[in-house]
Design brief:
By secondary structure, the protein is an alpha/beta fold. The protein has seven helices and nine strands, in the order E-H-E-H-E-H-E-H-E-H-E-E-H-E-H-E. The chain has a seven-stranded parallel beta sheet, sandwiched between helices. The protein binds nicotinamide-adenine-dinucleotide (NAD). The site of nicotinamide-adenine-dinucleotide has 28 residues, from helix 1 and helix 4.
């Protein structure tokens, strides 16, 4: 088994590689699926939103890319295992896993209910854990020096009212990423996290349009780049970490945030 990933003069090139992307029906996950496919990867898209998933697959295949839909809930480990098995059927390898599916939750510490905490940990932490576990198992079985990318958040860097459950789950994702990097590194598997700032996606656009406009205006004011972040900005970071362009990086947390750190 080689511990060195195949290198090429085009380090973002992913032809011949297979990727699993969770949360691929919308937002950052959809943008990631599109970008990985444009780089040449066959993309296995997983999400609980079946209609959104079909749209993503249509978008990828419409551009001439390769995509397959896996309708599943990331809290269902057996379903994740089946998706990985399908992606590696006929002796193929899983080269990339991007664990992006996640949900938002806000409540003060005083008002946090146990069921809210359980739900957010189940999706935002255990869903990522199980995706990582199934990806590492497949990469190890085939001797593939793969790349795993997890989705944290700028919320791990600061406290903000109402974000206990969300930021605690994302902090657990960072710790998972760093721990797994130490365990899987000797197998040639890299594990890195992305911690975006405020990004315009369906997750952040489910608000009153006036509040939304105010939030976006504040983000533009605060960013040295004078614009809001788009899903594609984060997808580019995932592509970097998924590809040989980041061949000597593992256990890292990258922050596509337009220069705006939380709290804002
Ligand atoms: P989004 O709501 O636009 O998309 C999330 C996708 O995940 C959806 O397609 C949804 O169906 C899917 N999903 C949710 N729960 C699932 C489950 N249990 N099983 C399978 N699929 C599930 O959100 P987004 O803004 O694109 O966020 C993607 C990731 O990035 C999340 O983990 C989020 O926490 C993180 N993030 C987002 C921002 C932001 O500002 N948008 C900032 C930092 C981190």
């Amino acid at each position: 088994m080689s511990l060195t990933p195949s290198t090429s003069s085009a380090p973002y090139e992913l032809h011949g590689r297979t990727a699993l992307v969770t949360g691929a029906a919308a937002g950052i996950g959809r943008a990631t699926a599109l970008l990985l496919a444009r780089a040449g990867a066959a993309v296995h898209c997983a999400d609980r939103d079946t209609a959104g998933l079909a749209e993503t697959v249509d978008l990828v295949t419409g551009e001439g890319g390769k995509a397959h839909a896996h309708p599943l809930d990331v809290t269902d480990r057996a379903a994740l295992r089946a998706a990985v098995a399908a992606a590696t059927a006929d002796g193929g390898t899983l080269d990339i896993a991007a664990a992006i599916a996640g949900i938002m939750h806000t409540s003060s510490v005083a008002e946090t209910r146990e069921e809210d905490l359980d739900r957010i940990l189940a999706v935002n932490f255990k869903g990522v854990l199980h995706t990582c576990q199934e990806a590492v198992a497949a990469m190890t079985a085939s001797g593939t020096p793969g790349s795993i990318v997890t989705m944290a958040s700028g919320a791990v860097d600061a406290a903000q009212p109402g974000l206990l459950c969300y930021s605690a789950a994302k902090a657990a994702v960072v710790q998972l990423t760093k721990t797994l990097a130490t365990e899987a590194g000797p197998l040639g598997i890299r594990v890195n996290a992305v911690a975006p700032g405020w990004i315009r996606t369906p997750m952040t656009s489910r608000h009153d349009p006036r509040t939304q406009a105010q939030t976006e205006a504040a983000m533009v004011r605060m960013s040295p780049l004078r614009r809001v972040g788009e899903a594609e900005d984060v997808a580019r970071t995932v592509l970097f970490l998924a590809s040989d362009a980041s061949s000597f990086m593992t256990g890292q947390v990258l922050r596509p945030n337009g220069g705006v750190a939380m709290p804002w």
